[in-house]
Amino acid sequence: MIAAELRLPRRDFTLDVSLSLPARGVSALFGPSGCGKTTVLRALAGLERAEGRVVVEGEAWQDGSTFVPPHRRPIGYVIQESALFPHLDVQRNLDYGQKRVPVAERRIPLPQVIELLGIAPLLGRRPVTLSGGERQRVAIARALATSPRLLLMDEPLAALDARRRAEVLPYLDRLHEELAIPIVYVSHALDEVARLADHVVLMDAGRVSAQGPVAEMLARLDLSLPLGDAAGVVLDATVAERDTAWQLARLDVATGAFSLWARDPGRALGQRVRVRLLARDVSLARQPQAATSIGNQLRGVIEAIADDEHPALALVRVRVGEGSSTAPVVARLTRRSAHALSLAPGLPVWALVKTVALLE
Description:
This protein has 360 residues and is an alpha+beta fold. It is built from eight helices and 21 strands.
């Protein structure tokens, strides 16, 4: 567990946050520019001397009279710019990172880092010869070469164009899946949060508005998230069955609440995938529908109805499943449709999810 209570006056606001983050996976600090996300990261690193406490897996880095200086905190820090040494090739940049750590404390072998980030062909090249995406992959590798107990990433893809971002994201997926290091990831890009995060901390004006698992946070209708077309839910699932004749796969949601048929992601049976159900691609019905092209029909109960960004529209959160095996689904529909169907919290409905709307 990573626990932090931080207070620090700034020019435009006073940072005042209390965090409780899991000790494994990606925790995303999400919110508009200038809300204090980077300040939190710098305080965790010890680069900002905030009041309060920072405890990582039972070890106090800051608490009362205790203050571990930045160079003694076992962290890796990745920023928007790669900050590689231009006079050193990639291999020597990595060696520089690893030399900071005594041999007995090196928990992540450098060959594993090189393989995870696919940078073996780059080792003999200098940073000036690398693309933006390649430089960021090397910067992440150098941070991991220090065998950190906590990896801090401050909008590492913000300086990249869409093509380079798409190049780096699969490697971040691999870090998430294969390393046990907790990652605190700063972003104001919802697509990155939806793809990478396990836990989300929503920030505004130096304070935490809400925090929790990504599936529940993105499904909440009481938060002032300007989601627009990105409104929807993110769910972890496993590949359970394959229909090779139609190039489809059955994905079992991790909570056990339901299964979805989607285009075949090409993963092995039993392998984890992440799917995103956009609200614009979910319809609601009072009864199951026959003779329809929508292949996924999920029985659930309406939990909440909220205003959408346009006054003609509403967002409806439906809890699908039974008992403890449930998961949220969000639908966007017109207020006229909601009125015609007499939709209200507590009403049983069927959520109709288009197969093509399931995204990895």
